[in-house]
Amino acid sequence: MLFYGKTDIGMKRAVNQDYFMIRSYSSEVLAAVVCDGMGGAKGGSVASTMATDSFMNVIEDKQEKYPLFKGMSEEEICDMLVEASVEANRVIYRKSSIEESLAGMGTTLVGCLVLPDTIYTVNIGDSRMYLTEKGNLCQVTHDHSYVQFLVDTGKLTPEQAKQSNNRNIITRAVGTERTVNADVFTTPREEYSGEYLLLCSDGLTNYVEPEEICAVVEKFTDEGEDILRMACEELVRMANERGGSDNITAVMVAV
User: Fold this and answer.
1) Arithmetic mean of pLDDT over the chain
2) What is the fold of 3-143+173-254?
3) Tally of CB atoms within 10 A around 196
4) pTM (2 decimals)?
5) Cα dihedral sign for 65, 70, 76, 81?
6) In sequence order, what are the residues at sequence separation of 6 or more whose Cβ sits closer than 8 angstroms to the Cβ of residue 64?
C-alpha cells in the first residue's frame, strides 16, 4: 500500500501546529492520523503532537493484541477508534489543566484505519477525510464547525460558508473539555471503487476545491510510485500560492 504525507508551515504562521503520523502494518493494513492544533504558539503544537501520539498508541497496543486487527468485529474496531480519540482528549485536557502556559489548548483530529474489507474513519473538528471515486472527491467526514452548523440548519449555503469570516470556528475539539464525542464512519471496500484517500487540515481545504484536488491526482497518474508525493507537494504549493494563511497538511494513501 503506497502512502505519503506532507505538512507545511504556510505563509503567515510562525509555528507549524499541524502534526501527522502514518503506520503501515502490511501491504493491506494501514493507520493514519492528522491533527491541527490550537491554543497559542506553544499550546497548539503540543496538543497536536500529544493527540497524534496518544491516538496511535491505542491503535498500536490493539494491533499487538490482535495482529492486523484480525478477530475484531466492526463494532470493536469502531470502539477502538473512539477509545483512541477519548484517550487523546484525556491526556491533553489533563496537561492543560496542570500547566498554566498550555491552558485551553486543543486540536482537531481525523484518523483512518484501512483494512482489506473496510475503511474506518474517525473525526473531531474540521480536519477532513476524502475518498476519490470516478473522478470525484467524496467527503467522508462531517465538519464540527460553526459554519457547518449554519449550513446544516439552512441558515447558510455551502458557497456562503466558504466566504464566512467564522469558518475557522470549530464546535468540537480534542482536549478543550473534559469529555468529547467522536464521529466514526465505515466504508465497505466492496462498495468503493476509488483509488485514493486524503486526510487533510483546513489549511488545505480553505484554498483548494475538491475538484481541483481530483485534477491534481489525475495530473500525476502516470508518475508511478511518485504520484502521492507529487500530488501532496502540488496541493501544498497551491494552498501557499493562494495565501497560505494557515498550516497545511495532506496525507494520501493509495487504497
Assistant:
1) 95
2) Phosphatase 2c; domain 1 (3.60.40)
3) 21
4) 0.96
5) positive
6) none
Residue 30 pLDDT exceeds 90: yes
Q: What residue ranges do the domains of the chain occupy? A: 3-143+173-254
Identity of the amino acid at 149: F
Residue 151 and residue 72 in contact, taking contact as beta carbons nearer than 8 Å: no
Residue range 64-78: average pLDDT? Answer: 98
Q: Which three cell numbers stand for residue 109?
A: 483530529
pLDDT in tens, 51-68: 999 999 999 999 999 999
CA distance 86 to 79: 10
Q: What pLDDT is attached to residue 41?
A: 65
Calpha distance 27→98 (Å, rounded): 42
- Residue 209 CA to residue 211 CA, distance in Å, equals 6
Question: Distance between the two ends of the chain, CA-based, in angstroms?
Answer: 7
More confident residue, 235 or 189: 235
By residue count, the chain amounts to: 255
At 81-94, the pLDDT tens digits run: 999 999 999 999 99
